[in-house]
């Protein structure tokens, strides 16, 4: 009953707020976060939008940038977590790992175990092992430094931290696109990769 009594006044308040007009003033130094996408992200963004799941990751990336523009750096970090989650699933799928209901940390562990198995059976080259180990390191670092503190400890992030993370996540997803190419059916990359400058 207490919950219902608290919820009942919400509808009239909501109607009242919808009748009012509120204009957001974005400081000029934050306006750039509303420009979509960054010039060096165009290739990743255009390719990703045609793929189911990737479209949502792209939307989350842009939402994260807008949150930073609105002065909400912690919300920015939380949206970027969803982008990293998508990247972790791409890497896992390339190794035929099931990704449903798996966290970034769980996927990182399974990726590492899968690579160790491939190394023991002689199916995996040293370059491929190093590639996946680097991805696992990146995923675990993100989980420890950003995802877990934001989700479990309700840590607040500042503008500098969020801005750095926007750049890092954008670069990480470009790396994923160059490495796996086809995000719908990712396969183990042929290494060494020939990356275009």
The average pLDDT value, as a whole number, equals 82
> Termini distance?
63 Å
Outline the low-pLDDT stretches: 38-51
**Class by SSE composition:** mainly alpha
Number of helices: 9
Rg, alpha carbons: 20 Å
Strand content: under 5%
Form type: elongated
Share of residues in helices: 55-70%
Tell me how many strands there are.
0
Largest sheet: none
Order of helices and strands: HHHHHHHHH
Explain how this protein is built.
This protein is mainly α. It has a domain at 29-99 and 146-180. It has helices at 2-7, 10-19, 28-31, 42-48, 54-69, 73-94, 104-120, 126-152, 159-180. It is elongated, with a radius of gyration of 20 Å.
In short, what is this structure?
The chain is mainly α. The chain has helices at 2-7, 10-19, 28-31, 42-48, 54-69, 73-94, 104-120, 126-152, 159-180.
Key structural traits:
0% strand, 9 helices, elongated, 66% helix, mainly alpha, 197 residues
């Amino acid at each position: 009953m207490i919950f219902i009594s608290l919820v009942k006044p919400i509808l009239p308040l909501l109607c009242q707020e919808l009748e009012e007009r509120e204009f957001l003033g974005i400081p000029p130094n934050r306006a750039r976060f509303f420009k979509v996408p960054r010039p060096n992200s165009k290739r990743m963004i255009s390719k990703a939008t045609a793929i189911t799941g990737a479209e949502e990751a792209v939307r989350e990336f842009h939402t994260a940038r807008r949150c930073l523009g609105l002065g909400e750096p912690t919300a920015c970090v939380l949206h970027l977590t969803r982008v990293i989650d998508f990247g972790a699933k791409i890497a896992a799928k390339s190794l035929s790992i099931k990704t449903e209901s798996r966290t970034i940390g769980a996927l990182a562990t399974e990726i590492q175990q899968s690579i160790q198995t491939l190394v023991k059976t002689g199916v995996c080259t040293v370059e491929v092992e190093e590639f996946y180990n680097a991805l696992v390191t990146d995923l675990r670092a993100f989980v420890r430094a950003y995802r877990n503190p934001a989700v479990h400890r309700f840590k607040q992030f500042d503008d500098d931290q969020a801005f750095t993370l926007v750049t890092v996540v954008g670069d990480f997803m470009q790396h994923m696109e160059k490495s796996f190419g086809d995000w719908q059916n990712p396969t183990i990359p042929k290494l060494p990769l020939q990356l275009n400058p």
